[in-house]
Write a structure and sequence with these properties.
The chain is mostly beta strands and about 400 residues long. Helices cover about 10% and strands about 50% of the residues. It has a single domain (about 1-40, about 65-300), classed as Porin, CATH 2.40.160. The protein has a 16-stranded antiparallel beta barrel.
């Protein structure tokens, strides 16, 4: 594992290639776009997933996985409002983002509202034409619960002389207890995302990220997330009732997560990698109180390489075969009497290709090999269409 991580980071550190400033996601494209008062954007993902299990017949799944429409309004040259309306599986409607942005100084913007937590690559840059593979890496579903967004406020900006972009936000935390325990071993915090839907808060969290893009073709990112989960048990407790507060404390965990990511492009060659580690406090008390199996440490990483076969031709099209290797463990460590579950120590290998008809339209196909520490293995064949405008 260490050798693979070393290889991907050495490749990323080579100081050759194309100049690559920090890429924009849909919201950033609107903010830095034209002077038009009203702007419209969006993206879509349509998938076919066929499970492959030895000795079993499985139905494939066809799904309009997500369709997102983005609307931006520019009040003046400093003030913008951005919102994304998401429809998942043709039936579930969410607000993915809704925030106000105000430029205080050339290097300092205020943002407040429902925003993406800046952790890793995919959570911010999750539009289908921005990544290889039909589905997002599972690291970014099991450990970083993409799409991860909460209500908060803070500051972001670019310091171009230092080739640095930064983000610092105070945000609402996960719902860890709402009458029952929410966190669990299989996907950790994913069920606890509040998404701005009548969210409740008992303590704030701090999310930060710094991106460096000063080397040709290279972008490096470092993210942190620190705080406690939220619990409805604190609502209405007398401040002097130490017994009730002690019980409520059993429904809360402390979360400290860090992430490092790298992206690199040189000619037709492209590579990316990501590492995430989370330390969770109070899991023994939480699991005893809620009868859940949340791990006390999470760890995962992936490395991916691809090559654009059309890079030397005069066309905006791309054909990119790629391979991605990822390992992620939501039971890297457990506390108390909870035993480590090998089914949560997983390895995925994805091999496939994408054909970009233009920068915002792609056809994808891949095959995924899944395995875990118990010896279980299976596969999945995927095909998809990705749109971004």
């Amino acid at each position: 594992m260490k050798k693979i991580i070393t290889i991907i980071f050495v490749l990323a550190a080579i100081n050759y290639g194309q100049a690559q400033d920090a890429p924009h996601n849909t919201a950033d494209k609107i903010i830095s776009g034209s002077d038009s008062k009203v702007q419209i954007g969006g993206y879509a993902q349509i998938d076919y997933n066929q499970p492959i299990n030895n000795g079993k017949i499985s139905n494939g799944k066809l799904d309009v996985h997500r369709m997102i429409l983005l609307f931006g309004y520019r009040f003046n040259e400093r003030t913008n409002f951005i919102t994304e309306i998401e429809v998942e599986h043709v039936k579930e409607v969410f607000v993915e983002q809704a925030f106000l942005s105000y430029k205080i100084l050339p290097w300092l913007d205020f943002r407040g509202g429902l925003m993406l937590v800046p952790m890793g690559i995919i959570n911010e840059y999750h539009e289908p034409p921005t990544f290889n593979g039909v589905e997002r890496p599972n690291l970014d579903t099991k450990i970083v619960p993409t799409t991860w967004r909460e209500i908060g406020a803070g500051f972001t900006g670019r310091i171009d002389n230092a080739s640095v972009k930064y983000q610092v936000y105070i945000m609402n935390g996960f719902n860890g207890y709402n009458g029952a325990g929410v966190f669990r071993g299989t996907d950790a915090f994913r069920k606890g995302r509040q998404k701005g839907a009548e969210s409740f808060i008992s303590s704030p969290t701090l999310a930060t990220k710094v991106d460096y893009y000063g080397i040709l073709g290279l972008k490096l990112g470092f993210s942190t997330y620190n705080g406690k989960s939220q619990s409805t048990m604190f609502n209405g407790i007398d401040k002097d009732n130490s017994g009730a507060i002690s019980v409520a404390d059993s429904s809360v965990v402390g979360i400290s997560m860090i992430g490092f990511d790298v992206r690199y492009i040189s000619g037709g060659f492209e590579a990316r990698g990501q590492i995430n580690f989370a330390n969770i406090k109070n899991t023994n008390q939480y699991n005893n109180f809620t009868e859940k199996d949340l791990g006390s440490q999470l760890f995962g990483w992936y490395a991916e390489v691809g090559y654009n076969l059309l890079h030397s031709t005069e066309t905006e099209q791309k054909i990119v075969p790629f391979v991605r290797y990822e390992m992620y463990n939501t039971h890297a460590k457990t506390d108390g009497k909870l035993k480590i579950n090998g089914a949560y120590d997983r390895t995925d290998i994805t091999v496939g290709a994408g054909w970009w008809l233009s920068s915002g339209a792609v056809l994808k196909a891949d095959y995924q090999f899944f395995s875990d520490a118990t010896g279980y293995s299976s596969g999945m064949f995927n095909m998809g269409i990705g749109i971004w405008f």
